[in-house]
């Protein structure tokens, strides 16, 4: 049987040099199955959809990982704030920002000075989720 739904992001994820829990987190994020507050509120759970860290935005995947002030500070300290801002600039929905970052060409990622930028993005995203 041939692959009908091949997506290059899955190859990138499974080849990352990081713990399996991080890969599974990325997989869940890209499938839109993380229980963020917005998702829980939309499923009639009695929870405020506001971000518990900043209370100034709705906690969806994009906000939690990239737009919350706490997340922005983490990315800034890692020196990845510009690439994150570039990824968020285009009108990308939640999971699409993470997918865009992980699919960036190697030459675009290597100019940041890190050898394992994809792994850093994946692990930092997991950390932001875990830390919340």
Automatic annotation (TrEMBL):
Q: Which residues form the Reverse transcriptase zinc-binding domain?
A: 6-75
Q: What is this protein called?
A: Reverse transcriptase zinc-binding domain-containing protein
Lineage here is:
Eukaryota, Viridiplantae, Streptophyta, Embryophyta, Tracheophyta
Per the record, the domain of life is: Eukaryota
